[in-house]
Amino acid sequence: MEIFKQIAPLKAFLNAQKRAGKSVGLVPTMGALHAGHLSLIKVSKAQNDVTVCSIFVNPTQFNNPNDLQKYPRTLDKDTLLLEKVECDAVFCPEASEMYPEKSIIKFDFGHLDRVMEGAFRPGHFSGVGLVVSKLFNIIQPTRAYFGQKDWQQFAVIRRLVDELNFDLELTSVPTSREDDGLAMSSRNLRLNPDQRQAATVFYESLVAAGQALQHGKTIREARAIVQAKFDERQGVSLEYFELADSKNLNILENVNASDSPSGLPVGLPIMCIAGFVGEVRLIDNMFLQ
């Protein structure tokens, strides 16, 4: 496995692969890798000749400096995990390599950046759009892979690819979960044992809300069920629970009003949830079957 910290040698390596006619898969991450990330690597390896995993804690997408400072960084462990799944190359630059000068470019994703994560994390998706654009330009992958857990991010990146005509295929891979349903996340490393147990409220709330909606309950009633579950659990707080159109992220008041993207069953809305366990912010989502 090749490890690159600078852009130029990475591009030289990839150019040689492409001249040989090889396809390139990209899995962008911020490190602190877990089985969910590795599942993306495995999908990429199955569909491409060369797989690159980027590990970069991108400062421009953090609207909370404390969150940036405390984000887990486990590069040595990450590289060992990537070697075990036979990843071909790792790109792990310093911030000065990706941002030699302070960036002044901002992205505005319109409605996609006004709801849910965009509303509670102003500037977050501008930073995501910037770093993903950089990675796409540097690596020029054939395909890029993202986890479903960050569905709103995937919707933003899909729009970025469409509008800027990036020549690549995007794939969203289903969320990997622990045995008790908790979505795998690098932020889970910051939870103590009691908080880790309390964090199952996110998955439990999605399941309960989904069952309620499927049995004819209104979205308001489903939201009340979610809030009650959070109120019952110590040390957790709900930031939002929404039902959204899985393509354009319009907030839905009618479970039958979704306009799903290609590749998903028609009319499939998505439930999205965010909240805190202690000071650790977690998100999750689930398609409404």
UniProtKB/TrEMBL annotation:
The keyword Ligase applies. Its EC number is 6.3.2.1. InterPro entries: Pantoate_ligase, Pantoate_ligase_C, Rossmann-like_a/b/a_fold. ATP binds at residues 30-37, 147-150, 184-187. (R)-pantoate binds at residues 61, 153. Pathway: Cofactor biosynthesis; (R)-pantothenate biosynthesis; (R)-pantothenate from (R)-pantoate and beta-alanine: step 1/1. Keywords: ATP-binding, Cytoplasm, Ligase, Nucleotide-binding, Pantothenate biosynthesis. Transmembrane segments: none annotated. It is found in: Cytoplasm. Its main location: cytoplasm. Beta-alanine binds at residue 61. It catalyses: (R)-pantoate + beta-alanine + ATP = (R)-pantothenate + AMP + diphosphate + H(+). It holds the Pfam family Pantoate_ligase. One of its GO terms (biological process) is pantothenate biosynthetic process. Gene3D superfamilies: HUPs (3.40.50.620), Pantoate-beta-alanine ligase, C-terminal domain (3.30.1300.10). The active site is at 37 (proton donor). GO terms for cellular component: cytosol. Belongs to the pantothenate synthetase family. PANTHER family: CYTIDYLATE KINASE/PANTOATE-BETA-ALANINE LIGASE, PANTOATE--BETA-ALANINE LIGASE. The reaction proceeds by a bi uni uni bi ping pong mechanism. Catalyzes the condensation of pantoate with beta-alanine in an ATP-dependent reaction via a pantoyl-adenylate intermediate. This is Pantothenate synthetase. It comes from Dawidia soli. The lineage of its organism: Bacteria, Pseudomonadati, Bacteroidota, Cytophagia, Cytophagales. The gene is panC.
